[in-house]
Amino acid sequence: MFSKYARTVPDRLSIGELWDMTEGNRDAFDFFGWLASKVEWGVLYALASDKEGFLSKEAVRRCFDGSLFYYCVRNYTEMSEYRSYYY
């Protein structure tokens, strides 16, 4: 997946590259599957993308092994500590 669609950075996907990936992997006349795929990858992008707007290979791996939410909690607490310190 990353070797085929990650053109900007080899181990991370942008939102446009995610869109191209879901377009390239869809089945004909499976309208629900098209929508479900876009929603699934969009939610993953919203949860796990970095500050530069890329979804890393590690974040996708964490989604499949179940450690994504622990990673998100750690990142959001770091962000909230940063915000409370500077605002």
Automatic annotation (TrEMBL):
<dbReference type="InterPro" id="IPR007736">
    <property type="entry name" value="Caleosin-related"/>
</dbReference>
<protein>
    <recommendedName>
        <fullName>EF-hand domain-containing protein</fullName>
    </recommendedName>
</protein>
<dbReference type="Pfam" id="PF05042">
    <property type="entry name" value="Caleosin"/>
</dbReference>
<comment type="similarity">
    <text>Belongs to the caleosin family.</text>
</comment>
